[in-house]
């Protein structure tokens, strides 16, 4: 769309699409409305070969936007505004506007404090350049490529919000490519599961071991580590767990008899957490399960991460013929697409089925 006479009502009626687009004003051709996929709409002014953001349409009328745009054409300068530094912006309006789980806020604040604020905190929003972001990202990637990707994603989110607020016109982090990461999906074989079970039995002889029980529950339920480590008594409901704060929000985990046995044994202690810290019982045990590193070394599976127990649970579901939508529900995935990585776990079953079908068709052909 282009060349329409913009009004406040017409600007509000512009629908977002998958990609951002602009609509130019017929009365003042250098004035336009930029519509973002999020639904945010901002006035823009084309000047000096670039588009300057004037502000959101709900904060500025079309007449004010026209006057400001004409002034800029005459003066040839950007709007005279005092833009905040990245530190002021990130710790202020952006931090206050985002609604996240406490664990997400904690990890985000950690990245802000350790990476983004030292690198960009003193810079005004419009002074953050793509080159500065690339230099920072390359230096961080040398030691922690995964952490650099996460920090880059946060930087993009914050600067996109600055665009929505009409503070800057483009995102300098938008074209910085993240590090390519190998897809890590390791499944335990039946023999490895048996060896793991035997090792956990030996450790638990003479009484339950907290870390051994956690490791066994991770394999029996497919839960994420924090969902078991931070499990509370109030979340146990008979043969199910009603998790209040999983990665994708509240969800229900159904327990097998073996998992219920572990849970019931832990319920006898009058503590809020089923797996309390030995030093501070009112808090959960440490997430760093040192026993896991000893076990995997003893049974020869040192390439297996603790999170791979969740992958192994999912692969066993698929190989048992459980439909992928059901596996997705069991794992607490927000989208079924996340479960597709386990589809190849049933390749042997597909191969066997193909052989059976092929043999049957061959037999029919011989009858002709």
Give an overview in words.
With about 375 residues, the chain is of the alpha+beta class. It folds into three domains: about 10-75, 2-Layer Sandwich (Double Stranded RNA Binding Domain); about 85-165, DNA polymerase, domain 1 (Orthogonal Bundle); about 190-350, Orthogonal Bundle (hpI Integrase, Chain A), CATH 1.10.443. Helices cover about 45% and strands about 10% of the residues. It has 14 helices and seven strands. It has a four-stranded antiparallel sheet. A three-stranded antiparallel sheet has the order 5-6-7, with no helix packed on it. α4 (about 100-120) packs across α6 (about 145-165). The protein is elongated and about 85 Å long. About 30% of the residues are buried. The mean pLDDT is about 85.
Features:
3 domains, hpI Integrase, Chain A, Double Stranded RNA Binding Domain, alpha+beta, DNA polymerase, domain 1
β-strand percent reads 5-15%
Structural class, from secondary structure content? Answer: alpha+beta
How can the largest sheet be summarized? 4 strands, antiparallel
Termini gap:
64 Å
The CATH class of the largest domain turns out to be: Mainly Alpha
- CATH topology-level fold name of the largest domain: hpI Integrase, Chain A
Domain Core-binding (CB): 60-163
GO molecular function: DNA binding
GO biological process, one term: DNA recombination
InterPro entries: CB, DNA_brk_join_enz, Integrase-like_cat_sf, Integrase_catalytic, Integrase_DNA-bd_sf, Integrase_recombinase_N, Integrase_SAM-like_N, Phage_Integrase
């Amino acid at each position: 769309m282009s060349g329409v006479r913009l009004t406040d009502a017409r600007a509000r009626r512009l629908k977002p699409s998958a990609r951002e687009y602009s609509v130019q004003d017929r009365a003042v051709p250098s004035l336009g409305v930029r519509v973002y996929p999020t639904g945010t709409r901002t006035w823009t002014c084309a000047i000096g070969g670039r588009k300057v953001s004037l502000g959101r349409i709900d904060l500025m009328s079309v007449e004010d936007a026209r006057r400001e745009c004409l002034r800029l054409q005459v003066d040839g300068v950007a709007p005279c505004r005092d833009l905040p530094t990245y530190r002021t912006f990130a710790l202020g309006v952006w931090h206050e506007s985002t609604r996240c789980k406490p664990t997400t806020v904690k990890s985000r604040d950690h990245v802000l404090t350790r990476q983004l604020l030292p690198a960009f905190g003193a810079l005004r929003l419009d002074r953050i350049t793509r080159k500065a972001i690339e230099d920072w990202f390359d230096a961080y990637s040398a030691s922690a490529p995964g952490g650099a990707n996460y920090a880059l994603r946060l930087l993009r989110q914050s600067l996109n919000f600055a665009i929505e607020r009409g503070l800057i016109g483009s995102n300098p982090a938008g074209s910085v490519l993240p590090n390519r990461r190998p897809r890590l999906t390791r499944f335990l074989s039946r023999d490895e599961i048996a060896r793991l079970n035997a090792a956990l039995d030996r450790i638990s002889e003479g009484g339950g071991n907290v870390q051994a029980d956690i490791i066994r529950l991770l394999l029996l339920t497919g839960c994420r580590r924090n969902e078991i480590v931070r499990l509370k008594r109030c979340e146990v409901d008979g043969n199910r767990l009603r998790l209040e704060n999983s990665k994708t929000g509240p969800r229900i985990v159904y327990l097998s008899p073996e998992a219920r046995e572990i849970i019931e044994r832990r319920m006898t202690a009058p503590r809020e957490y089923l797996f309390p810290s030995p030093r501070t019982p009112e808090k959960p045990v440490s997430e760093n399960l040192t026993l896991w590193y000893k076990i995997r070394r003893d049974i020869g599976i040192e390439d297996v991460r603790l999170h791979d127990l969740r992958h192994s649970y999912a692969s066993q579901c698929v190989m048992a013929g459980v439909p992928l939508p059901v596996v997705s529900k069991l794992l607490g995935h927000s989208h079924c697409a996340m479960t597709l990585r386990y589809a190849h776990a049933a390749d042997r079953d597909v191969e066997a089925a193909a052989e059976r079908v092929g043999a049957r068709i061959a037999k029919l052909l011989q009858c002709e």
